[in-house]
């Protein structure tokens, strides 16, 4: 049996020191009794020196967290340390031993003298150290070998692959018809029991779409798609039971035949596979392989759409206000959770005079079309900030948008207001929105009703200006109808928000409660804007 022992330790220094590492090594040496004492002594000295260097130098003497992995296999002892320290460059060339009186600079020369490979790389702000020593037999003479690290490039590649998969934003998302139709077609076309779109996460395989009896999730070690992503070529195994390379992955009643194509992230990283499989071996022709390639290309196109939607979501979220307003005596916050990658809701705030402009709008519909309309409304309302009153801003928005909204066949409800931070006066126009309420400090509430249609319905509309006063301890809550759907969907849901506001100590506690309620259950965009005046007491 091959002698392979691997241990990983996550350290924080302080309080962890080299003593922690020596305790780890003691457990490894106990499990590798055939390891030559000279190899063990050299490896321990090198790993301790590596640890000491990371602790002392990687973050210029400041506290640091790092991970140490030690692997002992039949032909080598290999240690990899990974840290996010501030030191970016280490010169490993011409590392000679300092003079005998020097107390510093001995660690790296000792490591290089005792080992066959000492490597350092910095990728995306992370330092990777790897030390490799070839094992010798008790009777052999020590000679330097060409033995580069087998793990450092793999670690870097895997981190890039994992980061690319996470950036796709597709893991653990709900099933989607655009992927399901491909797996259904593949299953019918090839007459197999299962077709799937699988992604390889850190330690698991997860399926975005499965047609048939296959699992949604399984360990990465047992996954055939893990083998597929090791190459750019298709993997076809007609009879896994007859192939010793894959016999260990045979699952009786589920997996004995497999064919798969790798799937890619935008940067070219292999993140998963489109595959078909069956519980019995079968022949898979060249023509069928080409047909499977075409279906994998279809899935790849859908992944490209997903990435574009993810990018659109980042842009839309970036348009939301990123900084808190500097308004002494006030707390203002908001949240927007699209039902899809992007949505038609938005909230906004920005300083105006001795206060702020506040906006929440809802474009009819969902998805990219609604998000484009929402972004346009936001831009027009912001450009109209020069008007002395909010009604003027809404009039300007209507004049600029009516033709576009009519052509698109949509309308937009909007609550647009200006808040005076000294007096607490709220001047607002409600264009068909009607989902605003003030939770008073005494437990009562006042709903701010709408008296005019949405933008895009009638260009001749005159939107009346209305006012309200926020007293100390009062909270203004403006929401989209998606928030009401988190309760019973009716206007009675506003009473739930009032109760929540009276119990919460600040707007962010309300927002987190709404986030938790919306998680995984919302079928509509969920948006909320809150302004609370500090209690004078």
What are the main properties of this structure?
five-stranded antiparallel beta sheet, Beta-Lactamase, alpha+beta, Heat Shock Protein 90, six-stranded antiparallel beta sheet, Phosphatase 2c, domain 1, 537 residues, 3 domains
Structure notes:
The protein has 537 residues and is of the alpha+beta class. The chain folds into 3 domains: 5-150, 2-Layer Sandwich (Heat Shock Protein 90); 166-312, GAF domain (Beta-Lactamase, 2-Layer Sandwich); 320-533, PPM-type phosphatase domain (Phosphatase 2c, domain 1, 4-Layer Sandwich), CATH 3.60.40. 33% of the residues lie in helices and 27% in strands.
Secondary-structure-derived class: alpha+beta
Can you give the mean pLDDT?
Answer: 83
How many helices? The count is: 12
Number of DSSP strand runs? 21
Taking strands numbered 1, 2, ... along the chain, how are they ordered across the largest sheet?
A: 8-7-6-11-10-9
Return the CATH class of the largest domain. Alpha Beta
Distance between the ends: 75 Å
| Uncertain segments | 97-103
Brief synopsis:
By secondary structure, the protein is α+β, with helices and mostly antiparallel strands. The chain folds into 3 domains: 5-150, 2-Layer Sandwich (Heat Shock Protein 90); 166-312, GAF domain (Beta-Lactamase); 320-533, Phosphatase 2c, domain 1, CATH 3.60.40.10.
């Amino acid at each position: 049996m091959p002698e392979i022992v691997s241990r990983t330790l996550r350290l924080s220094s302080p309080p962890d020191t080299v003593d922690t590492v020596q305790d780890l090594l003691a457990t490894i040496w106990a499990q590798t009794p055939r390891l030559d004492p000279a190899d063990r002594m050299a490896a321990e000295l090198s790993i301790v020196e590596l640890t000491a260097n990371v602790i002392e130098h990687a973050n210029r003497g400041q506290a640091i967290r790092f991970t140490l992995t030690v692997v002992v296999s039949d032909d080598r002892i290999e240690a990899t340390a990974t840290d996010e320290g501030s030191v970016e460059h280490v010169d490993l060339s011409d590392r000679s031993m300092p003079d005998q009186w020097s107390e510093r600079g001995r660690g790296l020369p000792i490591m290089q003298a005792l080992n066959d490979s000492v490597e350092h790389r910095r990728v995306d702000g992370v330092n990777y150290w790897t030390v490799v020593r070839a094992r010798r037999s008790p009777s052999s003479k020590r000679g330097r070998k060409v033995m580069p690290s087998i793990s450092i490039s793999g670690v870097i590649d895997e981190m890039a692959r994992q980061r690319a998969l996470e950036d796709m934003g597709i893991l653990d998302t709900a099933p989607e018809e655009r992927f399901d139709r491909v797996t259904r077609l593949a299953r019918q076309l090839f007459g197999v029991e299962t077709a799937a779109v699988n992604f390889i996460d850190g330690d698991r395989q997860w399926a975005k779409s499965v047609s048939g009896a296959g699992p949604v999730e399984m360990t990465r070690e047992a996954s055939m798609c893990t083998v597929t992503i090791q190459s750019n070529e298709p993997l076809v195994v007609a009879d896994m039971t007859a192939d010793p390379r894959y016999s260990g992955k045979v699952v009786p009643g589920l997996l004995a035949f497999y064919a798969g194509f790798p799937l890619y992230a935008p940067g070219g990283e292999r993140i998963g596979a489109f595959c078909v499989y069956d519980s019995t071996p079968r022949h898979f022709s060249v023509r069928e392989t080409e047909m499977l390639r075409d279906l994998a290309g279809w899935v790849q196109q859908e992944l490209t759409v997903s990435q574009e939607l993810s990018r659109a979501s980042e842009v839309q979220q970036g348009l939301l206000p990123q900084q808190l307003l500097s308004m002494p005596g006030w707390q203002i916050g908001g949240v927007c959770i699209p039902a899809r990658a992007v949505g038609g809701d938005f909230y906004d705030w920005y300083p105006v005079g001795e206060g702020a402009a506040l906006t929440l709008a809802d474009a009819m519909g969902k998805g990219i079309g609604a998000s484009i309309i929402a972004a346009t409304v936001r831009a027009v309302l912001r450009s109209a900030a020069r008007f002395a009153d909010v009604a003027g801003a809404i009039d300007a928005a209507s004049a600029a948008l009516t033709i576009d909204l009519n052509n698109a066949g949509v309308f937009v409800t909007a609550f647009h207001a200006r808040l005076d931070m000294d007096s607490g006066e709220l001047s607002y126009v409600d264009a068909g929105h009607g989902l605003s309420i003030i939770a008073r400090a005494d437990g009562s509430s006042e709903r701010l009703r709408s008296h005019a249609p949405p933008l895009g319905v009638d260009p001749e509309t005159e939107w009346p200006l209305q006012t309200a006063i926020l007293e100390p301890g009062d909270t203004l809550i403006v929401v989209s109808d998606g928030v009401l759907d988190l309760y019973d969907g009716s206007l009675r849901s506003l009473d739930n928000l009032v109760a929540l506001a009276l119990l919460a100590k600040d707007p962010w506690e309300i927002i987190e409660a709404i986030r938790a309620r919306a998680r995984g259950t919302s079928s509509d965009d969920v948006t909320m804007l809150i302004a609370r005046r500090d209690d004078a007491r």
